[in-house]
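Appendix B, record 7
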Amino acid sequence: MNDISVINRIAVGDIVRRSASRHPNKIAIIDGETRMTFSRLDEAANQFAHYLLKKGFEKGDRIVTISANSWQLIVAILGIQKAGLVWVPINPAVSLKEKNFIISDVKAKLIMVDKDFIQQADVMKKSCPNILYMGSQSSDQSSFEALLHGEDTLEPEVHIQDRDLAQIMYTSGTTGSPRGVAIPHVAVFISSLGNIVEMMIKKDDIVAVILPIFHCALHSVVMSFIHIGGTMVVFRQFEPASYLEAVKKEKITIMIGLPMMYRALLHVPTRTKKDTESLRYCVYAMAPMDEKTLKSGIEEFEAKFCLATGQTEMYPATVIFGPEYQLSKFGSYWGIPSLINDTAIMGEDGHILDKGEVGEIVHRGPNVMACYYNRPDETEQSRLYGWHHTGDLGYFDEDGLLVFVDRKKDMIKTGGENVASILVEQTLLLHEKIENAVVVGLPHAHWIEAITAFVIPKEGVNVTKNEIVTHCKEHLSAFQVPKEVIFVDKLPITATGKIRKNILREQYKTYYTEQTIT
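Structure tokens (predicted):
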């Protein structure tokens, strides 16, 4: 009897096999001196899948990776998923305590650690004794390449269905303890196709893989490029000057970066337009771009700019603020829903709100997570009224574009008014002497929550609290102006650039009880 689930299956591993069939000799990955074709990428992923299955791992087993960007990591991910196993990436920057929590939470059967994090392996062995080193272990070859040698290059026969888990990705912990987001094969598969259309990716495009692959945003882009047959240039870290050299050398056409990365590139003193003339499409993520940087980027790079947003629970990209709106709409615009999902604004009682009304941003579509791993109650809460709840507040403007207001938890309640922290942050970033800034509400006897700005000044400049407050008064209503400006050298961030406001709230929770500030 024919099995329809085999005939019409959707599986992440199928993506690379099909691209290898269509573009066998095309370069898929450039990583330093390594240049890997699609044919070799597929073969290596198959070899690793066979290695894992021979080691006795069974369908559904969890395999952890702790790694910076590398060709080895891409092969490992594809091999894990071709074998029907579940990929669990861990941000290398999180604490050992958090790493051990995740390893124990998923009951990991194997931990893969690259060369930069080997020293942590002994501690993690208490949570999972099986450790595989992905980096160089000898002078002549890497252990990862050695274990691939001799394994079958043909794809193993593993029964995979579209709702089987492909990966469990833990949230970045900006609000507290991490939660595992269980993501099925279909979510990754469909989102990778949506990105190709929304970001206008072509098979001849070359993308810079700068943001970490362990994060959902870049992983979805990696899968999009494998799907279309484009080329990926892998970076382990971002250094503006050397990055510009790579753009020029490899003729990179698409960049996915944080707003701060674009600002850094624009300020490289040796940069010329020739360095970036190959760029045609620049995607910024995590946050809107300030107007000055956006205008300079479009002019200097002569490329189209686009904001793509999403979240681990709703595999990105979920909402797109395309090039056609970049210089006509300014503020916290997220744009229009991706072609693969619905987006709406929901009121507290579950009804869908009209344009202009602020409520919670909700989604539904094939890119929704399967669940919060081991957290059934939180899973149920996240999908009330038949929609996925993001915890973000927003509204649709008169043209049908989504405008982000704030995270529910970051909305500051001060003196009887609600103030969106992001609005104050955007105002601060307009100041020419401010490099970065974040705003939180801190407990205050009179104001309930006092708007408090944490500011990093630009290097080599002097700026005072009075200058900043005056600037804010020129652009904001009186109740939105920060009650205090605290200068800092750095802000607590995740490896993907998100500022951890929960840490600032905790560190400074007694700030106003220890001083007389009104």
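Remarks on this record: The chain has two domains: 4-269+279-355+368-396, 411-507. The longest strand covers residues 434-444.
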